[in-house]
Amino acid sequence: MVNVLDGMNVSQERGSKTYNGYVMLLVLLAVTVLAFLWMSTSFPPGPEKASKIYFVFKLVASLTGFLVVATGFFMIQPNQTAVITLFGAYSGTERTEGLRWVWPWMMRKKISARAHNVHSEKVKINDLRGNPIEIACNTVWRVRDTAQAAFDVDDYKEFVNIQIEAGLRTVGARHPYDDMSEEDATTLRGSADVVNRELQEELNERLKVAGIVVDEAGLTHLAYAPEIAGAMLRRQQADAVIAARKKVVIGAVGMVEDALAKLSADGVVDLDDERRAAMVSNLMVVLCGDREAHPVVNAGTLYQ
């Protein structure tokens, strides 16, 4: 897979310089008291017009000081961050929870660092053998680097949803839905741990450009597409019967070999090639038959 980080500037999160909001509340209270005392003082002697201008000046200065302090407060909840920018330039990320204060001309964009749970829609894809299947997954992700999430992608939540679908299609096309011919083959239906691990690695590779890490990913829905579901069910049943028959025959051959070797080693009976072949045939019928065998008692000799 091509690295999406090549050829682009990658942002990196760093701490920001903010102030304790509770201390700034005391500062706001002090500014309010000082402004009230200043406004209540008498005007200096002089013309009436100058007194009005001085009053307006004190009012504007008091309101400006109050607004500068009052508009700098912001709240950060647990597992929440605030990306601070100054006139468009990244200033840092604040992760300290509680009441914080920053200069009012610095912009704050809050980004949650909590785990997000996304259940994807069912998508139709072709597996490794070209069979159309329906597949869906559940993904648990969180923001690791807030600077990348805020500045390296346009909308990191929409980016996550699109990449989940793309990663699901990529992983689903790597393996067949099922494979009865090989027991150790990696399949979507029979190798859930392997497929889930591949899906998590694929999504982490795709989402690291946005500073996002996937903690868990797993398939929640897997089925053949409706138009071939009936035919594939019959194929699965046939494959299962063939695989079961193969096991039965291999086991029966081993049991017949052990029985003949035991009879020969213990000297119970000596059989020529023709009688040995007949015994092998009878034992294979008994061991491989679908129904219970009905023995026939031979009252004569072995050759009758």
Automatic annotation (TrEMBL):
Its main location: membrane. It is found in: Membrane. Residues 71-236 form the Band domain. One of its GO terms (cellular component) is membrane. Keywords: Membrane, Transmembrane, Transmembrane helix. It is a single-pass membrane protein. This is Putative integral membrane protein.
